[in-house]
Write a structure and sequence with these properties.
Hypothetical protein af1432, 191 residues, two-stranded antiparallel sheet, mainly alpha
Length: 191
Amino acid sequence: MNTADLSGVIEFLRAAEQLKNTTRTSWTSSGAQETVAAHTWRLCLMSLLFERNFPDVDIAKLIKICIIHDLGEAIGGDISAVEQQHQPAKAEQERADLLELLAPLPTHLREDITALWDEYEAASSREAKLAKALDKLETIMQHNQGQNPAGFDYRFNLGYGRQYTVGDPVIEAVRELLDKETEERAREFGS
């Protein structure tokens, strides 16, 4: 890379740091609001831990997709799944935000990252489908583990992302365990 390319990479990395500050509508077990970066970290860890269950998946590609799947949120922030129902253009806005964030990068990096994001959004590969499934499962896990505010709607998670978590026995087994936890939390907290 030349100096201009390196400067663009540094500029991009500085802007992407915002994901450490961008909160989600999930809370950690200590009661802190979860950040997008923390969600992405555990999603990548999940990918690594389940690698042997998916020998037909390119683990490097899966982790790349997981790393970039929420990059646009550094600009537009996170929109909760509940709110997404009322914002049909969420994906279009997130892609526009992604392109803005990627602007300082050399062309080949912008194109590579955008292609991975598009693949994820369309769930057009085995890796993208698995990333979507794990993304939904990580979110549900965090909701079950977190110190959520009063009135938190646990039952929403029983249907959340279901279309991405069917068709694979391992993913379905994880989903079943998390759904049981969700039911317990819903009963415990009266939602």
